[in-house]
Amino acid sequence: MPRIVFLALVVLISGVATGDVADVYDFEDRAQEQRYQNLIAELRCPKCQNQNIADSNAPIARDMRDEVYRMMKDGAGNEEIVESLVGRFGEFVRYKPEFDSRTFLLWATPVITVFGGLLAVAVVIIRSRRAGAEGSVLSVEEKARVDRMLADKEQNRTS
Predict the structure, then answer these.
(1) 107: Cβ–Cβ under 8 A, 6 or more apart, which residues?
(2) Cα atoms in the Cβ-side hemisphere of radius 13 Å centred on 151
(3) What span, in angstroms and rounded, lies between the C-alpha atoms of 72 and 38?
(4) What's the CA gap between 66 and 39, in Å, rounded?
């Protein structure tokens, strides 16, 4: 029985030893730690596509977290840190890209889509009203044809 307990402990300890070690950084105060957490939460991991570097276990995300921490310790401001990472990895690392000539279509697409949808709805309503006004009155021939069809249907039903 002691061997089984010993083996279980060895397996348990070896599993813990091989796991990923969480990043441990020393901050001067709680505000600086919160600033760091905010920065790494708003930057996207280039490898993980839609995961921020705070949640990613990819090596590139770990490097980016280290870089954010190093730049913070060197006294860099938030915008300087973000711009440095954008310069290194591209605009993709921002969850909220800035509005400029390169990102115009990205920001304008929702507005264009809404206005396009409203325009399509307006066109459909206008066309249906025109068609309803023009087609609501039956000619004498059409009325006679409808009456014949209804009479035939009624006669077939009673037979």
Answers:
(1) 99
(2) 6
(3) 12
(4) 12
Which amino acid is residue 139, in one-letter code? Answer: S
Nearest CA to 85 out of 75, 98, 94, 96 is that of: 94
- Do 23 and 65 meet the contact criterion of CB atoms below 8 Å apart? yes
Give Cβ neighbours of residue 72 (< 8 Å, ≥ 6 apart): 32, 35, 36, 39, 81
User: What is the CB-side half-sphere exposure of residue 154 using CA atoms within 13 A?
Assistant: 6
Task: Tokens 């730690």: give the residue.
Answer: 33
Q: Map tokens 């397996």 to a residue.
A: 11
What's 47's DSSP letter?
T
Write out pLDDT tens, residues 62-103.
999 999 999 999 988 899 999 999 889 888 888 777 777 777
CA dist 39 and 68 (Å) reads 8
pTM: 0.53
- 99 to 102, 106, 108, 146: CA distances (angstroms): 8, 9, 10, 62
Tens digits of residue pLDDT in 21-64: 456 788 888 988 999 999 999 888 888 878 888 888 899 999 99
CA distances (Å), origin 70, targets 15, 46, 59, 125:
31, 19, 16, 60
